[in-house]
Amino acid sequence: MFDTDKPQPGEMSFLDHLEELRWRIIYSLIGVIAGTVICWIYSDFLITNILLAPATRAGIKLQNLRPFGQIFLYFEISMIGGIILSLPNLVYQLWKFIEPALRNNEKKYISAIVLFTTFCFLTGIAFAYFVMLPLTFGFAANFGSKAIENNFAVDEYLSIIVSIMLGAGVVFELPMLSFFLSKLGILKPQIMRRYRRHAIVVIMILAAFLTPGTDPVSQLVLAVPLVLLYEISIFVSKMSQRKS
After folding, report:
1. Dihedral of alpha carbons 45, 50, 56, 57, sign
2. Comparing C-alpha atoms, which of 52, 117, 125, 105 is closest to residue 244?
3. Where are the domains of the chain?
4. 167-207 pLDDT, tens digit each
5. Do 134 and 165 meet the contact criterion of CB atoms below 8 Å apart?
6. Cα–Cα distance for residue pair 239/161, rounded to 1 Å
7. Cβ atoms of 73 and 159 closer than 8 Å
8. Would the N or C end of the chain have less CB density within 10 A of its end CB?
9. Could you tell me where the beta strands, DSSP code E, fall in 23-181?
10. Per-residue confidence band for 1, with pLDDT thresholds at 50, 70 and 90
């Protein structure tokens, strides 16, 4: 599969890296396509029972305003679901590509890193679905005059759903980002401790900005996990430097 004509034993040439990258991309695309097919098969269940559930609980009425809007929505949700479903494979292929640059004692952590990365991302999605979305749509459904009926366009509704869930999944990758930056020597736990108070202020401002309304309880619900993630990131940064 790969070119064995290497400049030195144990090293990969530039063409070898390109060949390796090509196959990793192919394996990643195969996983995404397989995940998309699975999500397409269960797309009606995903959209009706999961993605539309927050609107149903909030009493929001949705409507399709485009002739082929639902077809495009089903296809879009299937693709996004396929990417999420194949996330462990995507992370694994990424780590297999950079594996030659790792030390022998670091290669054994690949499986743990894949699991931890996937866990953080899915935890963020779950937090958005069960905490952030009810707060967001509960506020949107009850705000304004009772004489105006809130009928939302389904494509805009699903766009908000997907954006919030994916955004939360990325934010919950903060510990993994801390691990990478610490391994590169860019981030140090001492710096994170020194600016802890500044980080908490930024987190509270971010929570106030993202939380609909002025309810302080809702702001704390969003701020507490972010503060915990920051503390976990400090611990991860410290452990990564200890093992390096």
Report:
1. positive
2. 105
3. 13-171, 173-244
4. 888 888 888 888 777 776 778 888 888 888 888 888 778 77
5. no
6. 35
7. no
8. N
9. 61-63, 151-153
10. very low
Place of tokens 């097919």: 37
Structure tokens at 31: 């996983």
| Global confidence as pTM | 0.75
Long-range contact set of residues 85-91: C-beta below 8 Å, sequence gap at least 24: 85/35, 85/38, 85/39, 86/28, 86/31, 86/32, 86/34, 86/35, 87/117, 87/118, 87/121, 87/122, 88/114, 88/115, 88/118, 89/27, 89/28, 89/31, 90/28, 90/31, 90/32, 91/117, 91/118
Q: Which two tokens stand for residue 15?
A: 């063409």
pLDDT digits (tens, 9 = 90+) for 15-59: 777 888 889 999 999 999 999 999 999 999 999 899 999 888 878
Question: Residue 56: in which H helix or E strand, if any?
Answer: helix 53-58
